[in-house]
Amino acid sequence: MIRKPTPLFFEQGPHAVILLHAYSGSSNDMRLLARRLESENYTVLAPIFTGHATGDPADILTAGSPQQWWHDTQAAIQQLRDRGYQQIAIFGLSLGGLFATRALMEDPQLVGGGTIASPVIFRGQTNVPTAFIQMARETYRQAKIVGEEQDQKVAWLQDHLTAQLTAIQAFADTTATHLDRVTQPVFIAQGDADQMIDPRSGKWLAEAYPQDQVTFHEYAGAGHVLTVNSAHHALEQDLLTFLHLIFEK
């Protein structure tokens, strides 16, 4: 029996950090980073987007949507405020970065935040559709769904995936158009060997903000999921440095 991921909530100090996971990912994307922040006395919340980590990738397409995930993001912020946290920062990996950016835009009370390998400004290539189908096949294989049954399920996903990716793209484009409404300090991380999105994505986003507002880190030789790959130690340290700057001590 494979254990399904659950939201992470580590309560420590008065400064709280929300970590939003990637498309077709889960809070597991954020566990290493969350534990490192917890060890430095930060309270950390890593929710799971609706439709994700259920065991059936189809749920991402049927239960999930940019509007629903934006609602999930707002609910995470509210969850922390309901528990008395006032100093909150928000970051997201890939898809999660779109919602972290939108949150900074719409909620000036947030202290700061940013993106990790996130195509907020979308140009060039994306391997998201291919990766999604590969993930789906692996999920079905682990659930012993094989052969014709798996092929039918994957065919359904292929028929419906484009519509959701188009909706995500529209959400990203709207967000990118209004980056001037983000007034908080922004952290941007990007691997220069990213094979999921264009590795220049982080630089493009950094250039869209005033120079004194943004902290940009590029990780040599690192792929897409910076929170768990070869760059994760460096990312954790860079993020801690940024958090130390933005939170009132």
Automatic annotation (TrEMBL):
<dbReference type="InterPro" id="IPR012354">
    <property type="entry name" value="Esterase_lipase"/>
</dbReference>
<keyword id="KW-0378">Hydrolase</keyword>
<feature type="active site" description="Charge relay system">
    <location>
        <position position="224"/>
    </location>
</feature>
<feature type="active site" description="Charge relay system">
    <location>
        <position position="194"/>
    </location>
</feature>
<feature type="active site" description="Nucleophile">
    <location>
        <position position="94"/>
    </location>
</feature>
<dbReference type="InterPro" id="IPR022742">
    <property type="entry name" value="Hydrolase_4"/>
</dbReference>
<dbReference type="GO" id="GO:0052689">
    <property type="term" value="F:carboxylic ester hydrolase activity"/>
</dbReference>
<dbReference type="InterPro" id="IPR029058">
    <property type="entry name" value="AB_hydrolase_fold"/>
</dbReference>
<dbReference type="Pfam" id="PF12146">
    <property type="entry name" value="Hydrolase_4"/>
</dbReference>
<feature type="domain" description="Serine aminopeptidase S33">
    <location>
        <begin position="16"/>
        <end position="227"/>
    </location>
</feature>
<dbReference type="InterPro" id="IPR051044">
    <property type="entry name" value="MAG_DAG_Lipase"/>
</dbReference>
<protein>
    <submittedName>
        <fullName>Alpha/beta fold hydrolase</fullName>
    </submittedName>
</protein>
